[in-house]
Design goal:
The structure is a homodimer. Chain A has about 110 residues and is of the alpha+beta class. Chain A is about 50% helix and about 15% strand. The two termini of chain A are about 30 Å apart. Chain A binds a DNA duplex (30 and 30 nucleotides) through helix 4.
Amino acid sequence: MATTTPLSLERAARLFHALSDEKRLRIVEQLRSGERCVCDLTGALSAGQSLLSFHLKTLKEAGLVTDRRQGRWAYYSLNPQAMAELEELAGALRADAEQSGPAHCCG
Amino acid sequence: MATTTPLSLERAARLFHALSDEKRLRIVEQLRSGERCVCDLTGALSAGQSLLSFHLKTLKEAGLVTDRRQGRWAYYSLNPQAMAELEELAGALRADAEQSGPAHCCG
DNA sequence: CTGACGCATCAACGAAAGTTGATGATAACC
DNA sequence: GGTTATCATCAACTTTCGTTGATGCGTCAG
């Protein structure tokens, strides 16, 4: 069996928080099909450029996206490693196979 | 190929938000090994009873946990269905296999 | 019936997050 | 060199969230 990763709750909270906003999820949805520049995203989400920068920064600080500068454009794309980490995390939160019964309360 | 689920971003944001707090993650961690009453959790997290009720309500409203009343105790446990939904969601957010290339910006 | 226990709910507060508009930095175009 | 386009950053504001202590409700024990 694979040794379960340390499962840092602080890290987990950061990842989940970055995905806890609908606009950021829409950004991720856009990036699934490849990298996008900010101006593309403002169009797709019909949101202000300033707001997009804010959300992209949040996603970037969580490690979920990476950015690449080319000319005057900034291209953002998903970080596959972080997405894998997320999926692994979701699996790690599931209930144990062996339950410890209803248990005597406040023991 | 499997048809991708509707993937409601509103629902996804709700789930992720419920898990975006470290204390709530600690609650989930506790519940992985079976149901617990509130007084057990206050001990495990060394947090006030009022605060626990607040976080448990957040988790419950997101559908991640269920509660059962017995006598004067309230037992909380994980909702396996929601945990599965979470894992499925994490998988659905990964990048597509076929990328649409760097793309011409602002097309 | 009375008092103690377990829990939810409420009000109040401070902290953090989301939003908007303005400003500034860098790169391209004329 | 001056102008325009793309994007990041900042200040200011509003909303939401997390936290605490007090209050209320139901349940068990004496």
